[in-house]
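Quarterly update from the structural biology core.
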Amino acid sequence: QVQLVESGGGLVQPGGSLRLSCAASAGIFSIMGWYRQAPGKERDVVAQFFSDGTTNYADAVKGRFTISGDIAKKTMSMQMNNLEPEDTAIYYCKFTTWSNRDYWGKGTLVTVSS
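Predicted structure, tokenized:
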């Protein structure tokens, strides 16, 4: 049974920083990603880390968020800088296997507010 556990959410003031982490208990993955869902909105991709080391970011976070991953260790992190109130959401990690099966974490809340 594969389980993903996120950590690092919390309350931060605008302009502040947070670091999210996610670790899987088992499995072999080709893609690791962060998604977020704000109240009343759909869950959207924030950033992705691919097994070849390439990354992908949503336009809204480019230049502010940095994703990093270790496929062998099944771990992933995302450094979030210059946070804005619009970044407030529940952040989920999703790991995808080479056979395109997805595993999701339970989510961690990030609140950006003064």
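The first strand starts at residue 4 and ends at 7.
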